[in-house]
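Exercise (ungraded).
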Amino acid sequence: MTSLTLNKITSQRGIPVGEAAKKIADLGWNPSYVQEAAVHPSDYKINKEPRDPMKQVLRSYFPMEEEKDNRVYGALDAALRGDMFRNVEPRWVEWMKLFLAIIPFPEISAARSMAMVARLAPGEELRTGFTMQMVDEFRHSTIQMNLKKWYMENYIDPAGFDITEEAFGKCYATTIGRQFGEGFITGDTMTAACMYLTVVAETAFTNTLFVAMPSEAARNGDYALPTVFLSVQSDESRHIGNGHSLLMAALKEPENHLLLERDLRYSFWQNHAIVDAAIGTFIEYGTTNRDKEKESYAEMWHRWIFEDYYRTYMLPLEKYGIKVHHDDVHAAWNRITEKMYVHNTAQFFAVGWPVNFWRIEAQTEKDFEWFEHKYPGWYAKFGEFWKWYAKLSTPGQKVVTFNEEVGYVYPHRCWSCLVPCLVREDIVTDTIDGQLHTFAHEIDRWTAVEAFADEYQGRPTPAMGKFGGKREWETLYDGWDLADAIKDLNFVRQDGKTLIPQPHMRFDDKDMWTLDDVRGHTLASPLNMLRNMTDEQREAHLTEYRAGFTINPCN
Amino acid sequence: MGVLSSSVGSGAAGAAKFSDSDSRKYRYFDPKGKRQSHYEDVTVDVQPDPERYLIQDWIINFSDGSGAYEKNATSAKSSNWHAFRAPDEEWERTHYQRQSKIVGMVQSVISNARANNVPEGYDGVWRKVLQKHLGAWKHAEFGLGTSLMRAQRFGYTQMINNATLTNSSYKLRLSQDITLFLAEVGMELDGWNDELGKETWMNDPIWQGTREAIETIMGAEDYLEQYFASNIIFEPMVGELIRSGFFMRIAAANNDPITPPVISAAEADYERNLANTIDLMYTLINDPQHGNENRALFAGWAKKHGTLANKAALGLQPIWSEPHTKPISFDDVRAQSHERVNHILGELGIGDVLNGII
């Protein structure tokens, strides 16, 4: 018997993918009656038509994404049937209140930015890629909002999830995420939507965001987050292709090289400052898993950012004539390892717990051992602090934020990345329009003072963005009583007194802090304080600040 | 798994009772209906507003000092931009389900038709009509799609921008559907010229009015004008006129059963996009503080784009004479189109604005 050759009956000649993409790229034309409306300006000049490396069309895109969705929503249903939340670690889910308050805004900002970037270069081919990215980002934003709603409906303590987007606009920690998201949609279009978003955030840092975090989630009994975020990450390769293609088109013009150098530097450093602060903290401090065989955040960073991104993506740009700031990459690595950047950030979030909208519990002896193993010297610097934090976690104690016995000194805020100046010895100051500002690092100062300016190294940059708004959160509540500030923030449960944030995982009203427990402490703006000093006082203060602080022994 | 970080040995809802342990709804916005919808939950307030919760204001500005989203990106005014909810309640899952269903249906239709040699049975004149005129029309759809892609950057709320984004996605999908449909049908037919559509779009006098109308929408700086002009004016006056009034109704009579289902998806898309647009415009035109101002603004947009759309529609008239079989006349479909646009404008309280224009 001859074998059945079904395809002789059913097969149909199709259009090759390349040809289909070419026909679709031909949908665009150069208008002759009315020119297309402006989107936002750029100081870059791009004359080369970028190519679409993915050559995908919507006909195959939509079913592919629907299939991905089916898997995601099927997994969420299965998680509930499997009683996932019975075994999920609250230490982990609490940090999702912060993470998922932030991330839908940067995602939808990326969708908006596609409108800007799609028009930057001539030709229509890559526009198809940007179109799909626009719809992808719409997917990511709403799928993440859905995940958060799902946590709110099924996790033991929904408080904080229930005010999520309100909290996003108000919190001293989400301001860091807003700096990230607004960076995609404001200022020079090429800087924002290509370099900051695609070339750096998506190409380098989504690995830590969307791959490292899911791994840690799974270790903490949460297999919903991996399902959603690995699905999100599967869209990123197309976005990386979009960014690389536009970058290659921009590289063709030598007059863009100075701006590319500027933007690569700004984008890399600020992504490091923001993403590593946040994701590093979630991964290292949100976990209960202390398996010494697993990679630390620093080890993952070295693999993904240093080896993969820096060595294989950034370095080759040199051969096109772009100056790559190698020192910055090493400085970032140094901050993550020797200067304990992530740990300083976690400590800062813990000190600020009363104005959070999630719970942070103390690290314990088991955690200490792991930290010391992965980050030698950690215990000497942070061990006593976390003991204090545990000791001061019961209502009636003097809140850690204001407890002089602890020895913590509240930090200055970096005017550029908005993460505080946590590596104390690196703080620098400078003035912008006659106003004094503090910066976490010299590169942060460079970003705010030199990169975000009207000209760069003598070249006019009229399209470049400007830092604005009330950037130092602490100035908003300067002189306020802590309890009044929390009430104003609406970080209070619906009984009108119990705080949404708690410094522990005890789910019992008798253990939970109320407004009365935190009343009587006055918030202050470190920046206002610094500005009001005489020059001598300021110099003395900064010298003392750079020397750091010592946490007192906790007995 | 070892002992959980939870004090009660579980991370599940209901494992303990304490303050707000039952707070399982987003409580930072007012739903439009009695209960908040899933769409609202995943949409409202994701784009922040300094007048609501964004207490630090926008923290990165454009070089002129304006923030990420500004109310003056449109000349329309609202006493509450956050009131609008898209009637189609689209979010990612429903969007992909619908789009995926459509591209699947379109591909099945084309594939089955090709397997049954349907294109070979096309009337010769109709073949030319498809190459030229459906080929030209795909560019109009693309123009609307790119206009709305731009527009979705500027709206003051997430609800407005997401509705505009999905509208753009629908238009761009249709332009690609038509492109690939024509290419695949052409594979079965000798002498088929896929380039003819663009050539017609760019140079044939029949299409220049339409191209001008589309380019004017593409060139509008006001994002809401782009949204208004697309769905309130151009679509009923030109889009439905040629899609339903020509391709769908005349194709079958010319031995072409494929084009109508390919195009019909667009008509269903438009019903949703029209509902979204008219709901937003209705809210603005009935705004307690700015309603009259908005009415005058929209009337101006209607006249500007209505004049162009009317010129476009009249320009297309010769197309109705081209097929061998002509089951419906241009005048009949144009009358329907006028009735439709006047009805839409009537709902907005500016029903007479095109008097003297159409």
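Further reading is listed at the end of the chapter. For now, observe: The beta strands of chain A are 428-432, 435-439, 455-456, 459-460, 466-467. The mean pLDDT of chain A is 96.
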